[in-house]
Write a structure and sequence with these properties.
84 residues, alpha+beta, 2 helices
Length: 84
């Protein structure tokens, strides 16, 4: 499981709220995932796939700020894990 500290912007909090998610949902999904980050084909940014405390599968798009800190760009529900 990855270890990260999270840096949140107001814009990111608004974007995830539009998808019915909270910062706690997103942080839980990232910290509990067993999958390595992947790169988004559309933005080129790294992504994590994980589950919220309620079990909803989400995709988290982020920017790495340093070795441990990430800035979430957006997150949204997905139907299934993306294939490589």
């Amino acid at each position: 499981m990855p270890y990260h500290e999270f840096f949140w912007t107001r814009r990111a909090l608004v974007k995830i709220a539009e998808h019915g998610l909270t910062a706690d949902d997103v942080e839980h999904a990232v910290l509990k995932t067993r999958l390595a980050p992947r790169v988004s084909r559309s933005s080129g940014l790294p992504t994590y796939t994980g589950r919220t405390p309620a079990g909803e599968l989400i995709l988290v798009v982020f920017e790495r700020l340093d070795a441990t800190q990430i800035m979430v760009v957006t997150a949204y529900p997905i139907e299934h894990e993306r294939s490589r």
